[in-house]
Design a protein that fits this description.
286 residues; 4 helices; 14 strands; 2 domains; disordered N terminus; elongated; OB fold (Dihydrolipoamide Acetyltransferase, E2P); Nuclear Transport Factor 2, Chain: A; five-stranded mixed β-barrel; mainly beta
Length: 286
Amino acid sequence: MYKAFTTVIGVATLLTGAAIAQTDIGDLTNDDTVTIRGEVTSVWGNDFVLRDDSADILVEAGPTWYHEIGIEAGETLEVTGQQHGERFSAFTIERPNGQLIRVRPESGQAPWAGRREAAPTEDAAEAAPAPPAEAGRTPGAEAPEQAPAATPQHSYGMSREDVERALSIALDYGFVTFDEVEYEGDGIIEVEGWLEDGWEAEIEIHISSGEIVKEKRERSSSGPGLSADQILQSMDVAAAEGMVRFDEIEKDGSNEIEVEGWDASGREMEIDMDAQTFRILKIDID
């Protein structure tokens, strides 16, 4: 993990040219550098919704793994940056007491761009040193034929404990209902659902560290969604039918939950059930 760094530079260096005009949020246009002022109504990590009398907008202020800026709901802030669609990319954030938070320069790459540590790849695994020769066998000699190794069980997908932890992280993040929990591979679990104020969100969680490695939000009509308890209870029902590892749990249609995973023999399973009564509607095993 890379540590954040702080560069002491003046606002004039960050924001060149003439003084930055203050603009109502409702009058924003894409790609103009402006200052907006309003009250913070919701916060998720470093990102927050800023509202004035004209409208509100999602302000993005960089990932929390790079820096944590500590914005809280109820604060009044002045944010200088640019609108991009439904989002406002912050360059600087100023509090009423004069504290200035420098997020990123106006031009060029963000300081956090490309600074994530790369996960091990299949190529790296292939390049790993070969195991030592077996005792009693001449190096380079053909190895005796062996039966294929059995696929290790439970080395794929999610356990119930994994999902429970991912849901807890998502609830702390601000989720109120859920649409889908899915295993993405390499220890990453993706959670989709709805936040407060009608925002739809998607986060990816590295389940071993609990770190949120990807975030995405957009304005959306809040769906009915599933509660965390509904997701966990649906997994318990699927486990009672023999599912031992889970690949995906999602809201399917208006009142159904679909759970996909594997049984102890590694066979794929799909179980559909009523979202309220948890009565099983369909079981498919491949």
